[in-house]
Structures are given as structure tokens and as C-alpha cells.
Amino acid sequence: MNSMAAQLETILRDVLKSDEAQSCDSILLSGGLDTSIAAEIIKEQCNGKSALNTGITVTIDPSSNQLATKHNLFIKQPQDIEYAAKIAEKLGLKHHVLTPTLDELVHGPAMDLCTQTLRTFEPMELRNAMVIAHALLHAKSLGLSRICTGDGADELFAGYKFMQQMDQAKLCTYIGEMTKTMRFCAIPLAQSLGISVWSPYLDSRVIEFATQKPGIPPNLLIGEFAGAIHGKLILRQAFPHVVAAAHIKEPIECGSGTVVMPALAEHLISNDEFISKICEIKSQFDINIADKERLLYFQSFQRTVLADSNATNVLPRYGPNACPGCNFDLESAESRFCGVCGWYLTTNSVT
After folding, report:
1. Which domains can be identified in the chain, with CATH numbers?
2. In sequence order, what are the residues at sequence separation of 6 or more whose Cβ sits closer than 8 angstroms to the Cβ of residue 158?
3. What pLDDT digit, counting tens, does each position of 290-333 carry?
4. Crossing angle of helices 123-141/109-118, nearest 10°?
5. How far apart are CA 120 and CA 126, in angstroms?
6. Is the pTM of this model over 0.90?
7. Phi, psi at 317, each rounded to 5°
8. How many CA atoms does the CB half-sphere of 134 hold within 13 Å?
9. What is the pLDDT of residue 71?
């Protein structure tokens, strides 16, 4: 093991034996590297004192989603469950495997929790958030109160594919910028339910290590491990023994199966219905709906945000930095993206 990986191992082991870690009673067990490390090292170091006894995994069963299956939208079986099951078995966790249908996620309490809390109908956010919300609602129903997640590892240690093309200077700058802007939906979603989430990768010691100057060399972040090229290489080198050490990174929407939502929306809503609905929404709310997936999510947004006259956190509109897509105010004059509808400045349209 190289010296930087050894240093990171020491830091994370210290973080994962803290009271904050040991008091987690459950984990959102995606089956990926980040939660594999968190769960396994918490239990490894607990001396029988850890509260961690439950893992929660959300996965879409293609056989329960007939329309998506009929149109061959599931190119491959969602992968999260395979690794999550192995981790839970290794650690003796009570493993709650949730298999909601896509219809239940889109039209059920998870979506309403997302739109009401996150104040958005933006598809990329909601494909991931609805999975997390469904898991947190289940955790709440079980009486669990402190849930561990793997948030932050991808941002800090080059888990995303687009980061793998950057040189050291650019990568170091980008990671530093990410620490100032990164946000994770699990935190506000949990708070709205009266429970809490915690991630070891958001500990100040881990962030300080990841953002050190001149930066972690790219060859320690991206490289070969177990016969394949991976991001987060330094984490894999620090903890090569964990179950998911060689698991290839997948976004939540891919690992769980919600990645099919854009294509599914095309089959759920006819072109005539889409045109009729978006004209109605434009007339009533002065909001442009760019595609059918957004229309699906807007139904919940309309119900939980626009119709909530008693909301204490009303979204401002029609300011000097109003979004051209939905007219809700952007965060600043420099904003290139609208977190409410997903409008991108680069295209001058909702994309």
C-alpha cells in the first residue's frame, strides 16, 4: 500500500470508530464501495458496541414493471442488490430489500417527500432522490433514527467518469470547488422526517486530506484495480479487503433501476397529452415543461409546492435572476443551472 492510501486508511478508521459512526443504527446499503467501507469498518472496529444492525437497499425488479419490461427498457438487471446482499450477510445485518414499482416511486410518498423538501421537479436529481427518500421512509417506519450513507466519496476521490480525464491541477481545483458546492439530498430528506444521516466522507479530516495541495496525484485516484480501471483508486487501495472493493461505480439511478424513467415516460404519456398538459401548465403557472419525465414529476411539485399556500419557504419568482424556463429565481447572476426545473444556460433552454 502506498503512503497516501495508508494515511487515508488511518484517517477513515479514526472517523469510523468515532461516537458519530458507532451510533448509526442503519445504513443505506447501495452495495457500492463507499457504503461497503463504511459498514465493514464500523463493524470491524466496534468491539461489540456498534448500534449498526440494519441495511436498507432499494432495487427495481424488472418483472414487477410490465410496461418497462415490455419495451425492453431494462438493458441490464440493477446491480446494487448483489453486492448489498453480500455485505449484509458478511456483517450479519438485518437486510431490508425494498422493491417498489416505478409507479409507486413516482406517484407515492417518496416523490412527494422529494418535491416538497427539495423544491424541484428536475429529473436528474429526482431519479436518485426518490430512491433515497423511499429508503428513509422505510427507516422511519422501522423506528431507526441515525442512518449512515456514502455521500461525498465520489466528489472527493474522483468517482465520476468525467473526472478521470483531468490533469492533477484541474482535478485538485475541481475537487476543491466541489467541497464548497456539493449537497446531498439525504440530509434534508432525513431532517424533514425527524431522523438524521451521517457520512464518514463528509468529516472535516477526510475533506482536508482530499483537498490538500498540490492535490492527490491522478494515478492514485484513477487506475487499475482487480483488472479494471476505476475511480476512487486510493480508497480501493486503502481497503482492498471489503466486499465491494472491485465494484464498478454506478450512479444510484443505474444501480437501483430508475435510470429507465426518461424512456418510460415516453410510453406513459402520449404526444397529444403532453402538448395539452404543457400548454395548460404554461398558462396556469408560467412554467415551461421540457419533456415527459419532467411532466411526471411536476404533478407532485404542483401538489406539494405550488398548491401549498401555507409554505414557510416560498420559492421566489420573477426576480432579476429569474430562470427563463420556470421563472423561479436562480441562486445568483452567475448561476448556469436552475435547481428547480433543470434549465442550463449553455443551451438557453431546459435540457
Report:
1. 3-260 (3.40.50.620), 269-350 (no CATH)
2. 164, 171, 175, 218, 221, 222, 231, 232
3. 999 999 999 999 999 998 766 556 789 999 999 999 999 998 88
4. 120
5. 8
6. yes
7. -135, 160
8. 29
9. 83
